[in-house]
Design brief:
The protein is an alpha+beta fold. It contains 7 helices and 15 strands.
Length: 229
């Protein structure tokens, strides 16, 4: 289980744990892999300020929703599933002949409400608008698909607020698909993007196989498997 810190009190520039007070500028970069920091009652302006302090070149990810800020440091063992999931989506989109524009980890925001940083994401319906885009603009749409390998309920809340149509979460050998409806996310057995493929079965098996034969061979076998559907 990841270490979790819940900051119920705060002063400017400093946050408190049960053990000690530590300085924001120094210690967030020193969090160990798997750590999760929760800071309650954070205003939007404070969230923007913390983002600026953290900078772009960091190993942590953020999620902000309902005035709660989470700062997570992914585990190293999540890197292979994260990268492989992104490659799997590219293979799937090629298989169904869908054009797309991938977007790496960046901060998606809904002004004043939510912010989140996916492991990877894809623009499909709006891919043309995002070609050549190096930075998000305020009027840019959310991605059609986001991928996560380390999430909490607050992360899911943030994606829902930003209105990402489909969210994949891979955790502990299991794939979960959330599809956005007018009433919020539903846990779905079928992807709205790839409705004819049993992804909940295929993808965990493929990722497990990649640990034994390597990602490249697993992807090649996956491409061959797709021709049977």
């Amino acid at each position: 289980m990841k270490p979790e810190y819940d900051f119920s009190k705060a002063e400017k520039g400093k946050f408190f744990t049960p053990e000690a007070t530590f300085n924001f500028h120094l210690d967030f970069d020193q969090l160990s892999p798997g750590s999760l920091v929760t800071i309650p009652d954070v205003t939007w302006l404070e969230f923007e300020s913390i983002l600026e302090e953290l900078g772009e070149k960091r190993n942590s990810r953020i999620a902000y929703s309902n005035r709660n800020l989470e700062i997570m440091v992914p585990l190293p063992e999540h890197e292979i599933p994260r990268d492989l999931l992104s490659d799997i989506v590219k293979v799937l989109l090629k298989f169904i002949k869908k054009l797309y524009q991938p977007f790496g980890s960046t901060t998606f925001k809904k002004e004043g409400i939510a912010g989140v940083e996916p492991d990877a994401c894809f623009y499909i319906e709006n891919y043309q608008k995002m070609i050549g885009r190096k930075r998000l603009q305020p009027d840019d749409p959310p991605p059609d698909l986001a991928i996560e390998t380390d999430v909490t309920s607050k992360t899911i809340d943030a994606y829902q607020a930003i209105q990402v149509p489909e969210l994949w979460i891979y955790d502990s050998g299991k794939l979960t698909i959330f599809v956005l409806t007018e009433n919020g996310y539903i846990n779905s057995k079928i992807s709205s993007i790839f409705p004819n493929l049993p992804l909940l079965d295929i993808i965990p098996q493929l990722i497990e196989k990649s640990w034994k034969v390597g990602s490249l061979q697993a992807l090649e076998e996956f491409e061959s498997l797709l021709t049977t559907f």
